Amino acid sequence: MNHSDDPPRPSRRRLLAGAAGLAAAGVVGRARANDANLPPNVASWSKTLGDGVGVRPYGKPSPFEKDVVRRDVQWLTASRESSVSFTPLHDLDGIITPNGLCFERHHGGITEIDPHDYRLMLHGLVDKPLIFTLEDLKRLPRVNRIYFLECAANSGMEWRGAQLNGCQYTHGMIHCVMYTGVPLKLLLEQAGLKTNAKWLHVEGGDSSGMNRSLPLHKALDDCMIAYRQNGEMLRPEQGYPVRLVVPGWEGNIWIKWLRRIKVGDEPWYTREETSKYTDLLENGKARKFTFEMDAKSVITSPSPQVPVKGKGFLVISGLAWSGRGKVTRVDVSLDGGRNWRTAKIDGPVLDKSCVRFYAETEWNGQELLLQSRAMDDTGYVQPTKDDLRKIRGVNSIYHNNGIQTWAVKPNGEVENVEVG
Amino acid sequence: MNHSDDPPRPSRRRLLAGAAGLAAAGVVGRARANDANLPPNVASWSKTLGDGVGVRPYGKPSPFEKDVVRRDVQWLTASRESSVSFTPLHDLDGIITPNGLCFERHHGGITEIDPHDYRLMLHGLVDKPLIFTLEDLKRLPRVNRIYFLECAANSGMEWRGAQLNGCQYTHGMIHCVMYTGVPLKLLLEQAGLKTNAKWLHVEGGDSSGMNRSLPLHKALDDCMIAYRQNGEMLRPEQGYPVRLVVPGWEGNIWIKWLRRIKVGDEPWYTREETSKYTDLLENGKARKFTFEMDAKSVITSPSPQVPVKGKGFLVISGLAWSGRGKVTRVDVSLDGGRNWRTAKIDGPVLDKSCVRFYAETEWNGQELLLQSRAMDDTGYVQPTKDDLRKIRGVNSIYHNNGIQTWAVKPNGEVENVEVG
Fold first, then answer.
1. B85 in a structural domain
2. d(CA B238, CA B244)
3. Structural domain contains residue B216
4. What NCBIfam families does the database record attribute to this sequence (chains A, B) (predicted)?
5. Residue A53: what pLDDT?
6. Cβ of residue A59 closer than 8 Å to a chain B Cβ
7. Does some domain include residue B265?
8. Please, which pLDDT band fits residue B32 given cuts at 50, 70 and 90?
9. What stretches in chain A show pLDDT beneath 50?
């Protein structure tokens, strides 16, 4: 590994190469601009009153941002029984995902639950079985935490080689919001655990009855019964009114429309942890209960959906996360992993949350092979795809956290590629 | 001041008084519930496939949350020339405001700017005047920060006494999101400041041409040229595509639809900092350039719009913030300020950001006079309304950070009141 702690910095002179002097304003974008709106003219929108009488009860994005949307891959899953849409990571920055753009994964469509009829059952190996209404849950002590949620199948189509052209599709089954909810530990304490309690069976109220086995130690550690995301109530597609939050673990176990928690002494071996959400190895055996999402990262810009627009100063931007704890460092390579530089992590660095990283460079039309590599506070380093395949083979769908490569072409276009 | 560091805690037995045993499920909410959906029955929504074929490009809140909206006060401002809508603080938790619910304040309606035609001019006492397109700005190094934005007129209707019944109206001109943008310092360095540069004139592209004078030291400290909020591009009503972020300072100077920055050697004394956004004192003199938002807090639940539903364990929840830095402590009183207990601050504590606080109690139908009091890391303590009036009089509209009082009645209803 060739690691440079002192990457070349762009000259300050070139930093603003894109910005023009007053006399030659607006070179970038000129082709599409309306001259009448440009300096020294006063723009049309400054001459007339804007919209906005009274109240706009709930705001929407600008019509000019109509392409910043969740998207699906038609051939992958597009039925009411199994559907998925991907977060437009390439069109976002920072670490918070706006609620309207959080990816979706449904196994029985989006369930609509009347909050007055919502109930959460807690039973099994407990002293006192309980049923909670939504109002009951909202009256309890609560906590607020920013966590990433990644589907175990994120990047799952890339096991056998570069396939989908855009980080929205290769890495878009992740989002990161602030959850508000009740610590699961609190509910379990109230019900009173029997001494032989070891596992929980958690079940959704959707038509698939999505259900998984959750080890008690995790439930007592940091799991939440969440009813809010980014301040407001959960969105319908995220499990309104209540979902389970299992920080750092695969999204499938973050049961949406949560209806039941049963305490037992061993795992249930449900369909979703035997036939699905296990990792088939080369020798035909399958890893099971691989809950934790390993450290991972992706460069979101430039990427296939956001090519490089013109030569000059370039900020490489991306996301990194680890289900094991905090991201401590992200490295970026411009040459497919031969040389690395340490990226700048900007903004809050929180446990089991996304971090935003940036690396600056000059781009003069040369071909680049962009990669990023995350490290976490356990010392874990994100592996190359090849190193991952040596251990895991290519039969798996889940838990692909290999290093992603984007090739930047001389014309600025970007492509999903594999390197040696 | 009688400060109790060891408030009485609710008994664990009573903590879940609202939760029923399996045999008597769902007492709370029963009146509105449909028995057919309640345990031991399988709910209707679990028996049929949910909605969700293909893609939902941009998600929306549940239809059951249709009352969680921004609202205006008709008699206050409801014209295209001057409009305002308030954040529903009583219906939120945590510290992040979802983009669709951030309060609005317009002086010339909501300006619609074609991002291709957008230009930012930077001129005056600089070596090299510059014009930036949106693409220019997006190519530059950027930072991500969670900041609160409070209108100087927030709580302005309360100077002469308790008036508006709901924290949405008394305190709802605040929101808190993650901004992404270019440090203003970077643009100023590129233009090159003349030695006599001291102030900036910042101007919006809206029809009111909103404009203010900004001291250079603040511009060089932490101001941002922001184009994103919570990851996605700014909402139209928040200044799409570019607004100024002036952390901790009154919202009026966070110029939306930012079109021009002129560097000068003294303030401009614009209408918005002479006739408006100055603080008229009892003696007829006015304080000017009172930029900083002092430490402040409000209990968001219970509050007039969210009464207490039934006796038993009660979590008092609220927001606190300070334009001077970090909130270090929040105290809560149940008896109108005679006795205080320290609230628990939960979630990230960031500079010039909101924090969420909680205090727990038992409510058995007794009358309460709820108050909260914020302290920041400069040692500043939020004053009572009366102490504030002694210094400021009641002629002002702006910068009212007095302690708010909610009276909880025996029937659980909550009212905005004044105490002693």
1. no
2. 10
3. yes
4. sulfite_DH_soxC (TIGR04555)
5. 61
6. yes
7. yes
8. low
9. 1-30
Q: Which helix H or strand E contains A216, and what residues bound it? A: helix A216-221
Same domain as A251, residue A300: no
Specify the long-range contacts of residues B215-223, CB closer than 8 Å, at least 24 apart. Answer: B215/B267, B216/B263, B218/B246, B218/B249, B218/B291, B219/B184, B219/B185, B219/B188, B220/B184, B220/B185, B220/B188, B221/B185, B222/B145, B222/B183, B222/B247, B223/B183, B223/B184, B223/B185, B223/B247
Q: Are residues B271 and B349 in the same domain?
A: no
From residue B334, give the alpha-carbon distance in Å to each of B317, B338, B342, B360.
13, 8, 12, 11
| pLDDT digit string, tens, across residues B38-91 | 988 999 999 999 887 656 899 999 999 999 999 988 777 767 777 899 999 999
Do B276 and B307 fall into the same domain? no
All residues of chain B having their beta carbon less than 8 Å from the beta carbon of residue A237 are 52, 56, 59
pLDDT, residue B27, reads 36
* Pair (B236, B138) in one structural domain: yes
* Secondary structure (H, E, C), chain B: CEEECCCCCCCHHHHCCCCEEHHHCCCCCHHHCCHHHCCCCCCHHHCCCCECCCCCCCCCCCHHHCCCCCECCCCCCECCCCEEEECCHHHCCCCCCCHHHCCEEECCCECCCCCCCCEEEEEECECCCEEEEHHHHHHCCCEEEEEEEECCCCCHHHCCCCCCCCHHHHHCCEEEEEEEEEEHHHHHHHHCECCCCCEEEEEECCCCCCEEEEEHHHHHHCCEEEEEECCEECCHHHCCCCEEECCCECHHHCCCCEEEEEEECCCCCCHHHCCCCCEECCCCCEECCCCECCCEEEEEECECCECCCCCEEEEEEEEEECCCCCEEEEEEECECCCEEEECEEECCCCCCCCEEEEEEEEECCCCEEEEEEEEECCCCECCCHHHHHHHHCCCCCCCCCCCCEEEECCCCCEEEECCC
What confidence score (pLDDT) does residue B16 get? 46
How many Å lie between the alpha carbon of A392 and the closest alpha carbon of chain B? 31
Give contacts of B121 with chain A, Cβ < 8 Å: 22, 39
Q: Does A248 share its domain with A333?
A: no
Residues of B in contact with A172 (CB under 8 A): none
Do residue B104 and residue B150 come from a single domain? yes
pLDDT at A356: 98
Taking Cα atoms as reference points, which of A289, A384, A240, A306 lies closest to residue A88?
A: A306
B65 and A CB contact within 8 Å: yes
Q: Are residues B269 and B325 in the same domain?
A: no
Is residue B145 less than 8 Å (CB to CB) from chain A?
Answer: yes
Total domains present in chain B: 2
- Please give the DSSP secondary-structure letter assigned to residue A309: -
Q: Which pLDDT does position A6 carry in this prediction?
A: 36
Among A15, A85, A130, the residue with its CB nearest the CB of B21 is A130
Last residue of a domain, one of A228, A258, A285: A285
ipTM of the complex: 0.92
Q: Is A71 on the interface with B (CB under 8 A)?
A: yes
pLDDT of residue B30: 41
Q: Mean pLDDT over residues B283-307, rounded?
A: 97
Inter-chain CB proximity A58 and B100 less than 8 Å: yes
Order of strands across the sheet that contains A2-4: A2-4, A339-342, A327-333, A368-376, A405-408, A414-417
Question: Do residues B363 and B412 share a domain?
Answer: yes
Domain that holds residue A397: 296-417
Q: Locate the chain B residue with the closest alpha carbon to A123.
A: B22
CB contact under 8 A, B235 and A59: yes
User: Using CB atoms, which residue from A47, A99, A139 is nearest to B18?
Assistant: A139
Chain A residues lying within 8 Å of B68, measured CB to CB: 232-233
Q: Which residue of B has its CA nearest to A48?
A: B207
